[in-house]
Amino acid sequence: MTASAPRYMARFRCIAEACEDTCCAGLTVPISESRWSLLREKVAGSPDEARVAALITPNPEGATGQQAGILGKRADGHCAFLDEAKLCSLQRRYGEAVLPDGCSVFPRVLTRWGTQVEMAGSLACPETARLCLLAEDALVREPVPEEQALRPQVARQVAAGDDAWTAHADTVREAMLRLLNRREVPFAARLYALGRMALGLGDFYFPGTTAFALAASHASASETEEASATAAREPMAGPALAASEASRHANASEAVDASAFATREPLADFALDANESRVETAGSRLVRILREYESVDTLASLHAQLDALELPGGPWAGICGAVLRSREAAVSSPRFLSLVRDVHASYGGSNANPDEAWRLHATRRAALESLHGERVHQYFLHHALNHVLRHPFTEAPSLLNAVFLLVLRASVVRWVLLGHPAVVALLEAPGTPVSTLDAAAVEAFQVVAKHVEQAPTFLDFARGLAGEGPETFARLLILVKGL
Ligand code: SF4
User: Fold this and answer.
1) Spans of all domains in the chain
2) In this predicted model, what pLDDT tens digit does every residue of 377-406 receive, in sequence order?
3) Can you give the pTM of this predicted structure?
4) Could you read off the pLDDT of 63-89 as tens digits, one per residue?
5) How many CA atoms lie within 13 A of 205 on its CB side?
6) Residue nearest to atom 7 of ligand 1 (CA)
7) In whole angstroms, what is the distance from residue 318 CA to residue 482 CA?
8) What's the farthest any 2 CA atoms get from each other in the chain?
9) How many angstroms separate the alpha carbon of residue 14 from the centre of ligand 1?
10) Alpha helices, DSSP H only, in 215-329?
11) How far is ligand 1, taken at its centre, from the CA of residue 372, in Å?
12) How far is the CA of 79 from the centre of ligand 1 (A)?
C-alpha cells in the first residue's frame, strides 16, 4: 500500500532540539483512552509510573474516547514529558506506540480519499513551513510508503463517495489546484476565479444536494471521469472576537453590491439557452463549469473584472488587525505575542486607524513586489495549494465557504508578513539577502498556522464574517482585493 504526499512531506524529518518552536509548546495535548491505558501498562513498575499517574489527568471537560486525558505542562508551556534535549522522554523510553495520536502524527495531516491515504503537512511546525514554502518543487505530489504516513488508521475519511458532494469532490479539488497554478494571471485573480467558480457551482453542488440524484438517469459517471482525464493531475509548481466586532467588519461588504454578482452568470459567454438548460444534468453542468475555468479567456476576463473593481482597503486591514487582537488576548506563546506586538507597532499600534494602516501596508506590498515578487508569490501559492490538500473543502458548509476561509487565512498571513520587523527593515535596506525574507516568512506562516488558523474562535469569526449565500461572495471580494 502506498500513500501520496507533496514532496516537502516526504522530505520532512523532525529537527527536535534544533526546532525553534517545539510542537507541544503552548498547546493542550489530549490522549485517547486506549493510548493512555497502553502507556500505563508500559510504565507499570518503572519510575515513570508515578509521573504518568501525576502528569496525565482526566479531561476537565469530561470528554472520553479520543480526548479522555490531558497531558500536563511545565511552567514554560511545554509538555511535562519533554526532556532537557527537547525530546519526548516517553517516546525515547517506550517507543512511538505509546504516544498520543496528535504527538505521533503531527505535523502530518492524514486524509483518506476513497481508499487512498493522503498526507499533507501542518505549517504549525517550523520545519514543515520551511520545507513547504521555500522549495520550488515542494508541492509536487508523489507516492510515499504508507509506513511514512504514521497511523493511517486515524486518517479522516472525507470522500467516501456515497453522496454527490463527496463523489465529485476529487474532481472539484483537482480543478481548484489547477486554477491556483495558473500563472498567467496574478494570484489574487486566481482566488477571485476560485470564488466565482464556487459561486457558479453553489446552487446545485453542496452537502446534501439532491440535484445529481434527480438527474441520475441523464448524468453518467463518465462525464466527471472524462473531466478528470482531460485535466490530468499536474504537479503543483511550483479570547473570542465580540460578535459586534465581527458584524462591524462584515458590514464593510455593503460597499459591494452582492446581488449584482449573485444574480448573473459569471461571464456572459457561459449562459445556456433555454433548451440546453432543460437537458443539462447536474453532472454535466459541473463538468461544464469546471471546464469554463480552464479557459485562458475566462481567466483574462476575470482578471480584468477584478482590476476594474475599486474597493477601499481599510476594511481588509481592519479585519486582519481584529483577528490578531483577538488571538493576542487568548494565546500565551511568547513567540506569537512578541511577533504580534511588533506587527501592530509597525502599522501604527494595535488600534491604528484601518485606512492609515492599509496605506502603510499597500506601500510595503508594492515595494516588496518589486524586490522579491516571485519569492513572495511562491510562499502564498504554496500556502494555498497546501491549504486545499490539508483542509478538504468537503468539511465546509459550501465550496464558497471553503474558498472564503482560504482567502481569510492568506490575508492574515499577508498582514503579519508585511508587518514583520525583518520585512519592514528589509524594505529600507534593499540589498538584504532573500534568506532574511525567507526566515521572516517561515515565522509568519508558522505562528499564524499554530495560533490562529485552527483556533475555534477564529473559525467562529470566519463563519460570522462569511455570512451566507450571495453575501459570502461580496465579502470574499473585500478579502481578495486586499491580497
Ligand atoms: S514542531 Fe516540527 S520540527 Fe519542531 S519538534 Fe515538533 S515535529 Fe519536530
Assistant:
1) 2-26+64-158, 161-238+257-308, 314-482
2) 999 999 999 999 999 999 999 999 999 999
3) 0.84
4) 777 788 998 888 777 888 888 777 888
5) 28
6) 14
7) 11
8) 78
9) 5
10) 221-230, 243-250, 258-262, 274-279, 282-292, 296-308, 314-328
11) 28
12) 13
